[in-house]
């Protein structure tokens, strides 16, 4: 498990500098490469996929389903992971410029884009394996709440507005990013080439999200009486939802047995250690994460909170009201 760094209050740690990361740029036409003799020679032409939001529309990795994995299971698993990112991205997008300052508004916007960058290839893979003629947009905008498979932590209203506040938002981000980072770090080593490639591109980004949220939890928790109370109240409200993060769905269990997925219960101790360290620095006391129970079905089975129809109505209304013709 990696060691967290709380040495600085870097409020930009969650941002991805896409403009400064050449890995997210397409190669420019007419690029040149210097040969050993110092002469500039044209770089060999290579066919590259169309780029959208910095993500290849048609990744080059092998897309065959590994032996021992059912395509329907793999489609459902991709849907789970994609829905998690999509719903949290939409919730974070509501902050816009409503954060404590413009700098933090930009940071939350960058995290939102990161999550959409994760959701898109996962939903595209789910649609591909489903084979029903839908694409990622069809899955995002043309399902009702019972068809979504995200965890409830991603969908609840944490603000802005009467549903929550900034403390609740960063507390949710800390819990979500700590859990998702641990899962994706392991997912990078699994047998499915598509999921492995997505995880390898993603887990370091999730680490930055986690540390960005941790800095805010520490800053608020170790701050004045009001900020401390708000942060403690936020974590206490969210804590019961953490049990669902580690409940293993049958699809996850079957795919994990084929080394094509990660059963989330295996990361519980690692996530607990990260949160314990963060909360210790913030001087906040909460129950042991490994002892939080979970009963019932939850979002992985399509059983969502009462807020889910409202968040979907907000997310989907434009597409449904004025669909774009192909």
UniProtKB/TrEMBL annotation:
<dbReference type="GO" id="GO:0005829">
    <property type="term" value="C:cytosol"/>
</dbReference>
<dbReference type="InterPro" id="IPR009078">
    <property type="entry name" value="Ferritin-like_SF"/>
</dbReference>
<protein>
    <submittedName>
        <fullName>Ring-1,2-phenylacetyl-CoA epoxidase subunit PaaC</fullName>
        <ecNumber>1.14.13.149</ecNumber>
    </submittedName>
</protein>
<dbReference type="GO" id="GO:0097266">
    <property type="term" value="F:phenylacetyl-CoA 1,2-epoxidase activity"/>
</dbReference>
<dbReference type="GO" id="GO:0010124">
    <property type="term" value="P:phenylacetate catabolic process"/>
</dbReference>
<dbReference type="Pfam" id="PF05138">
    <property type="entry name" value="PaaA_PaaC"/>
</dbReference>
<dbReference type="InterPro" id="IPR012347">
    <property type="entry name" value="Ferritin-like"/>
</dbReference>
<dbReference type="InterPro" id="IPR011882">
    <property type="entry name" value="PaaC"/>
</dbReference>
<dbReference type="InterPro" id="IPR007814">
    <property type="entry name" value="PaaA_PaaC"/>
</dbReference>
<dbReference type="InterPro" id="IPR052703">
    <property type="entry name" value="Aromatic_CoA_ox/epox"/>
</dbReference>
<feature type="region of interest" description="Disordered">
    <location>
        <begin position="1"/>
        <end position="48"/>
    </location>
</feature>
<keyword id="KW-0560">Oxidoreductase</keyword>
């Amino acid at each position: 498990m990696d060691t967290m760094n709380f040495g600085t209050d870097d409020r930009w740690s969650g941002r991805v500098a896409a403009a400064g990361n050449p890995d997210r740029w397409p190669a420019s036409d007419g690029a040149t490469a210097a040969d050993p003799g110092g002469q500039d020679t044209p770089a060999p032409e290579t066919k590259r996929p169309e780029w959208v939001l910095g993500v290849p529309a048609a990744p080059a990795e092998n897309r065959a389903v590994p032996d021992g994995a059912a395509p329907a299971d793999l489609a459902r698993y991709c849907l789970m992971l994609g829905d998690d990112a999509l719903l949290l991205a939409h919730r974070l997008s509501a902050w816009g410029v409503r954060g404590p300052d413009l700098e933090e508004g930009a940071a939350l916007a960058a995290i939102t884009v990161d999550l959409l960058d994760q959701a898109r290839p996962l939903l595209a893979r789910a649609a591909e394996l489903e084979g029903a003629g839908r694409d990622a947009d069809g899955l995002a905008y043309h399902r009702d709440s019972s068809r979504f498979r995200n965890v409830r932590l991603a969908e609840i209203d944490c603000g802005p507005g009467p549903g929550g506040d900034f403390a609740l938002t960063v507390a949710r981000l800390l819990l979500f990013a700590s859990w998702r980072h641990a899962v994706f770090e392991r997912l990078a080593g699994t047998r499915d080439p598509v999921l492995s490639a997505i995880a390898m591109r993603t887990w370091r980004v999730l680490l930055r999200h986690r540390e960005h949220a941790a800095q805010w939890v520490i800053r608020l928790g170790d701050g004045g009486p009001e900020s401390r109370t708000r942060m403690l109240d936020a974590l206490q409200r969210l804590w019961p939802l953490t049990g669902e993060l580690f409940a293993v769905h049958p699809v996850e269990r079957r795919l994990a047995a084929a080394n094509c997925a990660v059963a989330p219960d295996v990361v519980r101790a690692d996530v607990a250690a990260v949160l314990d360290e963060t909360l210790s620095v913030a001087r906040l006391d909460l129950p042991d994460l490994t002892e939080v129970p979970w009963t019932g079905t939850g979002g992985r089975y399509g059983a969502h909170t009462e807020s889910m129809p409202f968040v979907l109505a907000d997310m989907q209304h434009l597409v449904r009201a004025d669909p774009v013709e192909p």
